[in-house]
Amino acid sequence: MGDDVRSDCWVRVTFGDEPGIQLNSRVEVFYGESIRSLASEAAEALGAAGASIQIEDGGALSWVIAARLEAAVKAADPGIVDSYLPERTIPHRTPVADRLRRSRLYLPGNTPRFMLNAGLHAPDGIILDLEDSVAPTRKKQARLLVRNALRCHDFGPAEVMVRINQLPLGLEDLEVILPEGPEIILIPKVENPEQVREVEAACSSIADKAGISPPLLMPIIESGRGAWLALDIAEASPQVAALTIGLEDYTADLGVERTAEGRESFWARAQLVNAARAAGIQPIDTVFSDVDDVEGLRASVLEAKALGFVGKGCIHPRQIRIIHDAFAPTTSEIEKATKIVEAFDLARSRGEGVVALGSKMIDPPVVQRAQRTVDLAVTLGLLGQNWREREAEKEEASDA
C-alpha cells in the first residue's frame, strides 16, 4: 500500500468485526462498483461473506484484486481451503518442445505490475517466479497471483513458464498453478534425476485430473553435484525440453566468487551443453546480472553461443533485444551455411556420397550445423522460405 503503488492493492480481512467492504481506490470513480461487486462475490465463494474487508487499491486489475483478497481471507482463517477462481480469459496453452528459447524474462511472482506489459517486450519466454524473487512470507500470495495470471493475463506469443520452489514446497506450487496450463515448469536446484521424476509424476497426475497436457520441464543446475550428474538429469524424463544453469548458487556451492570472465564456471557450463546435446534437448545459459552493462551482456551472449548454448536468461526487458541480436546468425554465417546446404543437396541429387564445396570436403556434421543455421535464419526472417530459388536466380544472372 502507499501513494507509489501501481497496479496492485492491499487487502485486510477481519472476522468478528462489523461485516462490510471499505474501499479506497485510485480509480473509484470508474471502477468502484465493480471492485465492490468482485470483493463481495469472492468473499461469498470463499465462505467469508460475514467478514470485514478493507481494500486500498492502486489500480489493480480484477485478477490481482481477487488473488490478494483470497490470500487475505486464508491468512485471517487458515481453515478456509476453498478457492475463488476468476473467469478464465486465456485458453490453456499447448507445450511445444522444439521452439525458440533465446530469451526468457524472469518476473517476480508477487509483483503483478511487472507482469502487465511483459509480453510487449517480446521475449521468447516469460518466467513467473515463485522461488528466489519471492520472500518466504509471501510464497502463498505469489502462488495465487501466478495462478490468476495464468488464467487471465495475455502474455502474447511468449512461452509461459513457472519456476516453482525447491522440493517439497514446489509440489504444493504445482497443485495450485498447474491446472492453469503453464507450458514449462522450471525445477530449481536439481541435484539428481529422482527430483525430475518426482516433479514429472506430480505434473502428470495433476494434468490428468485437469484434463490438460502435462507441461514440459526445465531443470536448473545450481550445484557441483547437479553439474556432475547433468546427463542423468537431462535424460530423467521425456518431458525435459531444456537444461539450464544458475551460476549464483553454483559458485556459492563451490565457495568461489562469480566473475565476469567465468573461468570458475567454464567446466559446469561446458558439461551442461554436452549433457543437453547428448540428451537431444536445448542448453540454456544463465542470466547476466548487470543490467547496465550492455557490452558485457553482448560479449556474454556471444561466448554462450560459441559454447553451444541456444538461449539466456533475462532479469530486465532491456536485455531481450541484445540477446536476440547476438544469438541470431550473422550475414556471413548465413551465406556460408546456404552454400554448404546447396552443395549437399546437389551431391545428393547426383547420387554422390561425397560432398564438396570448392576444393574442400564437407563432413555430415558440418552439413547438420549449416542446416540448423539456415533453419534459424528462416525462422527469424533473416532468410526467405524460398531462399533456394533466389540463390538459383542469382547464379543464373551471374552466368548470364
Structure write-up:
46% of the residues lie in helices and 16% in strands. With 400 residues, it is α/β, with parallel strands linked by helices. The strands form three sheets. Strands 4-5-6-7-8-9-10-11 form an eight-stranded parallel β-barrel, surrounded by five helices. Strand 12 (355-357) and strand 13 (360-362) form a beta hairpin. Helix 13 crosses helix 14.
Q: Report the end-to-end length measured between terminal Cα atoms.
A: 74 Å
Residue windows where pLDDT falls under 50 for at least 5 positions: none
Number of domains: 3
Number of distinct beta strands: 13
Oligomer: single chain
Order of helices and strands: EEHEHEHEHEHEHEHHEHHEHEHHEEHH
What is the general shape? elongated
Main pleated sheet: 8 strands, parallel, barrel
Major β-sheet strand ordering: 4-5-6-7-8-9-10-11
Query: Would you tell me which CATH topology of the largest domain applies?
Result: TIM Barrel
Q: What's the level 1 CATH class of the largest domain?
A: Alpha Beta
- Helicity level, as a percent range? 40-55%
Entry keywords:
400 residues, alpha/beta, TIM Barrel, 3 domains, 3-stranded mixed β-sheet, 15 helices
Give the topology.
Layout: E1 9-14, E2 20-25, H1 28-45, E3 52-57, H2 62-76, E4 103-108, H3 112-116, E5 125-129, H4 139-152, E6 159-163, H5 169-177, E7 184-187, H6 193-210, E8 216-221, H7 224-228, H8 230-234, E9 242-245, H9 247-254, H10 266-279, E10 282-287, H11 294-307, E11 311-314, H12 318-327, H13 331-349, E12 355-357, E13 360-362, H14 364-379, H15 387-399
